[in-house]
Amino acid sequence: LNPTFQCSQKDVDLLFEILLAGTQLEKQDHQLLIPDEELASLRQVKTLRVICEDVLPKTLPEARRLVAQLSQQRVPLCWEDYERTVLTLVKISQTVLNTATTCLTAGYSLVVT
User: Fold this and answer.
1) Do 84 and 66 meet the contact criterion of CB atoms below 8 Å apart?
2) 66 burial via Cβ count (<10 Å: 0-12, 13-18, 19+)
3) Among residues 11, 51, 13, which one has the least CA distance to residue 30?
4) Predicted model pTM
5) 16 close to 6: Cβ distance less than 8 angstroms
6) Contact partners, residue 111, CB within 8 Å, separation at least 6
7) Is 91 in contact with 52 (CB distance < 8 Å)?
8) 14, 66, 75, 84: least CB-packed within 10 angstroms?
9) Which Pfam families match (predicted)?
């Protein structure tokens, strides 16, 4: 298994397009949801699904462990680690946004410190 999606500039452009299309990384079942059916049907998306559903950290403690491991390295990140870090940041950002939206909808106020 080679958990790398971006092997060329074309792949980078495709990932950008997929993320801009409103793609969501679902928290409960860790599924990648791509609202654009044409994008979702592309062969390359299968690799991205494997990365998002099986490779990325699934919990905040797992994400913290990943950050701790990577911060101990004294050499630049390899491409796979860089890609995984970026996708993890996207996933965490979506989780924070969804949590904040849920709290506000339920009538809670958010305090940022």
Assistant:
1) yes
2) middle
3) 51
4) 0.77
5) no
6) none
7) yes
8) 75
9) FAM180
Looking at residue 88, its amino acid is: T
E strands in 3-112 = 24-25, 32-33
Mean pLDDT of 67-83: 89
DSSP secondary structure, 33-74, as one string: E-S-HHHHTSTHHHHHHHIIIIIS--SHHHHHHHHHHHHT-S
Between CA 14 and CA 36 the distance in angstroms is 12
CA-based end-to-end distance of the chain: 41
- More confident of the two residues 30 and 100: 100
List the helix and strand counts (H, then E) for the chain: 5, 2
Residue 81, both tokens: 């680690």
The encoded tokens of residue 45 equal 């998306």
